[in-house]
TrEMBL record:
Entry-linked Pfam families: COMM_domain, COMM_HN
PANTHER family: COMM DOMAIN CONTAINING PROTEIN 2, COMM DOMAIN-CONTAINING PROTEIN 2
Lineage, uppermost ranks: Eukaryota, Metamonada, Preaxostyla, Oxymonadida, Streblomastigidae
InterPro entries documented for this protein: COMM, Commd2
Domain COMM: 127-196
Protein name (database record): COMM domain-containing protein
Length: 209
């Protein structure tokens, strides 16, 4: 599998082929890319400003170039590309062998660490723990004397596990909604046991391992 880039991304990725920069400068830029992707959320203003001034590249332009090359690494990690496929994805758009080799080395050296970093920073969705329910029936009331229609309702206690704590919510539903809920859960269970779902689960596990 090879990565595909938009016209705008290609414009930034190919920019270095139009600049007359030494191999040392290109390697230094690759180091900036590595620092950026391995230190998510940390500011690099001083390093970028220094590189910008030394090589006469506008700071805003340099940031766009940096983000474009970081994107190639994050997409390669997302799709679990081999180092060879990553290299072949860059060649048609980057056109600078020194930079391609440096980025390929960054990808090979940091692939697992960056993947684990992304997984740890991924939005944590509460996970299902348990669901308990009971049925209650009002035998009689002033508004519903004995002999009138008896309408049951259900109390549900839903327990979920968030990243830092456990949450319990109490819900109420009537018989039609309870039947719809059980039908949907049965359908979801059957789908989860299907060959397609197991195949997708294996694919997902391979990507995050």
């Amino acid at each position: 599998m090879l990565l595909l880039f938009t016209a705008e991304q290609t414009r930034y990725l190919s920019a270095f082929s139009k600049l007359e920069l030494s191999d040392d400068v290109l390697t230094a830029f690759a180091a900036l890319v590595e620092q950026h992707i391995c230190n998510v959320g940390e500011e690099q203003t001083e390093a970028l400003r220094s590189f910008s001034e030394e090589n006469e590249i506008q700071l805003a332009t340099l940031r766009l170039l940096l983000e474009a090359f970081v994107f190639t690494l994050t997409e390669a990690i997302k799709y679990n590309l081999s180092a060879e496929d990553y290299e072949q994805s860059l060649k048609p758009v980057v056109h600078v062998d020194v930079l391609i080799t440096a980025l390929q080395n960054i990808y090979e050296s940091n692939k697992e660490r960056i993947r684990n970093l992304f997984i740890s920073k991924r939005l944590k969705v509460p996970q299902f723990n348990d669901l308990r329910w009971r049925m209650e029936v009002a035998i009689a009331s002033r508004a519903n004397p004995i002999g009138s229609d008896i309408v049951p309702y259900f109390l549900l206690e839903l327990e979920t596990q968030a990243p830092k704590d456990k949450q319990i919510r109490v819900l109420q539903c009537d018989l039609p909604n309870m039947k719809h809920l059980t039908d949907e859960l049965e359908r979801a269970l059957q789908e989860a046991q299907s060959a397609h779902a197991r195949r997708m689960q294996r694919l997902f596990n391979n990507k995050v391992q």
